[in-house]
């Protein structure tokens, strides 16, 4: 039976029927007998010593089961930080250091940010828990606080951790080439301060967990909004609670978006898992959106001084970047890796640059912890580079498209060694950019823009030719750089006796559509109907140990693990078929869903018959084990490096300063594609998030009080439908040689590319007035209007 | 003090004794057991809890259960009839108008109201009318396409 190719087909998603009918299975939907409900008591201060906590009134409040503080949690350890920069001290070209600081699930000495949890109330209902939480009396002694990234290290008085003098978490350097010589030989040096503001991930489903301890068996089950259930289990068991890993099952059911924020192990998950063992009843906690703003790990927050050395004909001779990265009050699970190895290593971009030096200082502040948020380090790098390229073009009075083209690394496949440690896999950067300019009709736009200017209208275009590192990641490499984990992925393929197939992946889908794409991959490989393949993910009780989903790794790393298992299935199937056909296994090929003797289509056994034989092995090869099930772990040999070219057209309303996105065009190269519809969808959503950083989103902390003043959806400008355009998308396909699927990764490209494209467009719109940079995002109407007024008054 | 509240949800009558402070969305989720209606925020911004109350799309987090005694309510679970998807549900599937699925029930309930108001909506009308529903995954592109497609399908009937 021949089937049409499923790889590369825009197949409708198989997970959708349950979501469109309200039958999704999210953590907060779960109901268990005997359920109790948790409410956390949190610090109202940015920084305060805890003199005492009186829980007596709360304990006697109606419906309360228990109240716990940090002092009750004896024997429970700090939440771990899984990336230790100290480990990598001997890497050539890298200078680094890091202070590890404790992060207790319930802090009992000092609260270090607004929302830091200090106690938990467990009650018969959520209302009862909330009511009693109000009765927990904490004696606070407020301390001086600091929230501003560029002032944390100089702050007088505000000192977060005794072990980190001046609030410095780490210093890190990376570079290649002679930067001093590059700047000496430059015709023009462009210097800019670039502020990449703090963002809040805002997955639509707030974080939640249900923890259930079975006293009779000692089994603990944790349902949790996680992008990586095995990582949650390992960190919680081995580092924090010291409970046996094999007695703990972590289930991440349907998860309503993650964007990085659901990678990490959080206080509440640990506290509920500990508390269920005390009260011996299930404990449920679901974040309110306000709690999500105060406690979900946030993203970005860099202040950067960048200098670019240019020759007068537009070649990039050198780049020097000094960045202060705000880590927040504690080191979240993977936080130290984000502004270092996922940032500095991307500053080569798609350009042949003479020399690069990057210096990063990580600082502690009295704010929510910062960790990976969609793109994680790579958007920050891309923003610095793409903003600097445009500023350099302006300084040289050159077309930004020409400057890009002059500096692109020529087409290559195999390896391009950058100046910042990583080696790219394959690239054809000029091709993607040419495709973009063709879609866009760039020449016509410049003519339209000139015409508009005569009419007093401010039209602008911004480009972004980005690169990202994904398919995370080679375990040996990340281990040498400080990771506490390997970053392989698992994939198990179980063929049932009837030839039906269940696929178990360590990747986790929280919107990515794995139930469709992995079924496409396996069904295509086995040339069986997609209806015969079911995908299971998100349950440590069902799947082999896996590392989860982030860093655009699922298809490339998780998919390859499945391909490896399918290949093993085929190899075993060939032995079974050879036995049935009285042929040599070496002469059997797998084609059109059957095992056949090469060159003899009449001599064949269908896939299903081989499966049945494997489980009813009456007539079976000597020495071969029955059954047909294979597991593989794939550890990539390198990162993959998707790239592309985006363009944004904006028009500024000079009366209000409002920047309207008129057109948005994206040409992405993510290597081979399993399902174009799904990839396009991820590009759309990524672009929306990136554009929103450019124009609207930003977490703002009050300088004096340390309060998050953008702490709700009323105050934090998440984009709405009428703020965004239809996106025009296209692709080039440059397969990666790193994995057999040729897939690079597609989950973060839009977010990485869009922010500089939109900001560059706004700056371009105002370039006629001499504007070549706006230091701080988001480019709100007020900020654009002020820039425009200042530029006009200078004229 | 508890108060008795009776409502008809998707044609089924429910009666419960509730605290006056109970939000309608929690009545629907916790007492009626219909968990397709979601809670995504606490300030009536996200629209994940959108339902139809006596034929009007409303945010069920913005009403107390005691305010709706005697009302007719439709939730996402009531949109498909006789095992057949509502054309808007089908359109979201067809046009990939969802990724994580969390905002989707609210989006579909709002879309139904939009198409009642504007059977042939312009893109601008759809985007404006979706103001009360947030999606973090799709960038809205395919949601708009889905509602346009649903309008075509429903007009063709």
Put the structure in a nutshell.
The complex is a heterodimer of chains A (795) and B (157). Chain A is α+β, with helices and mostly antiparallel strands.
Spatial strand sequence of the major β-sheet of chain A: 3-6-1-13-10-11-12
Overall helicity of chain A: 25-40%
User: How many individual helices of chain B?
Assistant: 5
Low-pLDDT residue intervals, each spanning 5 or more residues of chain B: none
What structural class should be given to the helix and strand makeup of chain B? alpha+beta
Radius of gyration of chain B: 16 Å
Strand content of chain A: 25-35%
CATH architecture of the largest domain in chain A: 2-Layer Sandwich
Number of domains of chain A: 3
CATH architecture of the largest domain in chain B: Roll
In DSSP terms (H or I, runs of 4 or more residues), the helix count of chain A works out at 18
The strand count of chain A comes to 29
Q: What fraction, in percent, of the residue positions of chain B are helical?
A: 25-40%
Order of helices and strands of chain B: EEHEEEHHHH
Give an account of the 3D structure.
The complex is a heterodimer of chains A (795) and B (157). Helices cover 27% and strands 25% of the residues of chain A. Chain A contains 18 helices and 29 strands. In chain A, the strands form seven sheets. Chain A has a seven-stranded mixed beta sheet, with helices on both faces. In chain A, strand 11, helix 5 (229-241) and strand 12 (248-251) form a beta-alpha-beta unit. Chain B is of the alpha+beta class. Chain B contains five helices and five strands, in the order E-E-H-E-E-E-H-H-H-H. Chain B has helices at residues 24-31, 87-94, 104-117, 123-129, 141-155, and strands spanning 3-9, 12-18, 50-53, 56-59, 72-74. Chain B has a five-stranded mixed beta sheet with strand order 2-1-5-3-4, with helices on both faces. In chain B, strand 1 (3-9) and strand 2 (12-18) form a beta hairpin. In chain B, helix 2 (87-94) packs across helix 5 (141-155). The chains are: A alpha+beta (795), B alpha+beta (157).
């Amino acid at each position: 039976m021949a089937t049409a190719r499923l790889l590369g087909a825009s197949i409708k998603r198989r997970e959708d029927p349950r979501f469109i009918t309200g039958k999704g299975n999210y953590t907060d939907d779960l109901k268990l007998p005997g359920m109790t409900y948790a409410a956390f008591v949190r610090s109202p201060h940015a920084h305060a010593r805890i003199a005492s906590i009186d829980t007596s009134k709360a304990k006697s409040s109606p419906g309360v089961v228990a109240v716990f503080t940090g002092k009750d949690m004896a024997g429970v350890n700090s939440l771990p930080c899984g990336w230790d920069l100290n480990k990598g001290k001997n890497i050539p070209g890298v200078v680094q250091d890091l202070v590890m600081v404790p992060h207790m699930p319930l802090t009992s000495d000092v609260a270090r940010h607004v929302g830091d949890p200090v106690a938990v109330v467990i009650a018969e209902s959520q209302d009862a828990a909330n009511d009693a939480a109000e009765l927990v009396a904490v004696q606070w002694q407020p301390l001086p606080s600091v929230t501003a990234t560029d002032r944390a290290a100089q702050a007088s008085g505000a000192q977060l951790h005794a072990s980190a003098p001046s609030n410095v978490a780490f210093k890190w350097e990376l570079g290649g080439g002679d930067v001093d010589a590059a700047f000496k030989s430059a015709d023009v040096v462009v210097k800019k301060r670039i502020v990449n503001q703090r963002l809040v991930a805002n997955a639509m489903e707030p974080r939640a967990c249900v923890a259930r301890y079975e006293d009779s068996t000692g089994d603990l089950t944790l349902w949790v909004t996680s992008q990586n259930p095995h990582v949650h289990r390992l960190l919680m068991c081995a580092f924090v609670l010291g409970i046996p890993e094999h007695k703990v099952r972590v289930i991440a059911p349907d998860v309503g978006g993650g964007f990085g924020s659901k990678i990490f192990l959080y206080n509440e998950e640990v506290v509920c898992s500990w508390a269920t063992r005390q009260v011996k009843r299930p404990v449920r906690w679901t974040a309110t959106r306000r709690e999500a703003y105060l406690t979900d790990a946030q993203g970005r927050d860099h202040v950067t001084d960048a200098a670019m050395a240019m020759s007068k004909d537009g070649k990039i001779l050198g780049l020097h970047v000094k960045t202060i990265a705000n880590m927040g009050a504690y080191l979240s699970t993977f936080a130290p890796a984000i502004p270092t190895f996922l940032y500095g290593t991307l500053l080569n971009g798609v350009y042949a640059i003479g020399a690069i030096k990057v210096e990063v200082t990580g600082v502690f502040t009295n704010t929510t912890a910062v960790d990976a948020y969609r793109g994680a380090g790579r958007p920050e790098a891309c923003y610095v580079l793409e903003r600097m390229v445009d500023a350099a073009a302006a300084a040289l009075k050159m077309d930004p498209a020409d400057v890009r083209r002059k500096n692109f690394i020529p087409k290559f496949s195999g390896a391009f060694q950058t100046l910042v440690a990583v080696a790219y896999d394959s690239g054809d950067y000029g091709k993607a950019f040419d495709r973009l300019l063709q879609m866009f009709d760039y020449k016509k736009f410049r003519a339209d823009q000139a015409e508009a200017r005569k009419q007093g209208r401010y039209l602008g275009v911004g480009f972004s030719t980005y690169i990202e590192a994904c398919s995370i990641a080679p375990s040996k490499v990340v281990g040498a750089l400080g990771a506490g984990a390997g970053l392989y992925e698992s994939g198990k393929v179980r063929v049932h006796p009837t030839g039906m197939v269940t696929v178990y992946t360590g990747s986790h889908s929280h919107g990515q559509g794995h139930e469709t794409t992995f079924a496409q991959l396996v069904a295509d490989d086995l040339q069986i109907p997609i209806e015969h393949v079911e995908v299971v993910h998100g349950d440590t009780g069902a799947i082999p140990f896996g590392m989860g989903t982030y860093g655009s790794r699922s298809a490339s790393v998780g998919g390859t693990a499945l391909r490896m298992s399918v290949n093993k299935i085929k190899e075993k199937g060939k032995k079974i078929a050879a036995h049935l056909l009285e042929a040599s296994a070496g002469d059997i090929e797998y084609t059109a869903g059957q095992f056949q003797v090469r060159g003899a289509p009449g001599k064949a056994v269908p896939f299903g018959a081989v499966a049945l034989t494997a489980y009813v092995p009456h007539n079976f090869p000597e020495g071969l084990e029955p059954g047909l099930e294979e597991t593989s772990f794939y550890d990539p040999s390198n990162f993959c490096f998707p790239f592309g070219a985006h363009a944004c057209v904006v028009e500024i309303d000079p009366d209000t300063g409002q920047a309207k996105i008129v057109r948005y065009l994206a040409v992405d190269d993510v290597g081979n594609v399993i399902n174009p519809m799904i990839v396009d969808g991820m590009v759309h959503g990524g672009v929306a998030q990136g554009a929103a950083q450019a124009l609207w989103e930003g977490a703002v902390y009050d300088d004096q009080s340390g309060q998050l003043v953008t702490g709700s959806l009323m105050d934090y400008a998440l984009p709405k439908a009428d703020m965004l355009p239809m996106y025009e998308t296209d692709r080039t396909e440059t397969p990666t040689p790193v994995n057999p699927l040729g897939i690079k990764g597609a989950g973060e490209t839009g977010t990485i590319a869009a922010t500089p494209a939109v900001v560059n467009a706004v700056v371009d719109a105002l370039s006629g007035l001499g504007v070549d940079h706006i230091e701080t995002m988001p480019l709100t109407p007020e900020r654009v209007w002020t820039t425009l007024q200042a530029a006009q008054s200078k004229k | 003090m508890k108060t008795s509240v009776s409502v008809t949800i998707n044609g089924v009558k429910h009666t419960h004794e509730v605290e006056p402070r109970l939000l309608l969305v929690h009545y629907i989720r916790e007492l009626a057991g219909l968990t397709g209606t979601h809670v995504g925020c606490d300030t009536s911004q996200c629209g994940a809890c959108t339902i139809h109350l006596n034929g009007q799309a409303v945010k069920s987090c913005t009403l107390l259960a005691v305010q709706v005694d005697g009302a007719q309510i439709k939730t996402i679970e009531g949109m498909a009839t006789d095992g057949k998807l509502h054309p808007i549900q089908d359109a979201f599937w067809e046009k990939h108008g969802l990724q994580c699925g969390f905002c989707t029930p609210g989006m579909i309930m709002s879309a139904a109201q939009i198409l009642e108001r504007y059977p042939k909506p312009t893109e601008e009308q759809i985007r404006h009318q979706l103001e009360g529903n947030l999606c973090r995954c799709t960038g809205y592109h395919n949601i708009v396409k889905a509602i346009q497609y649903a309008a075509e399908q429903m007009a063709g009937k």
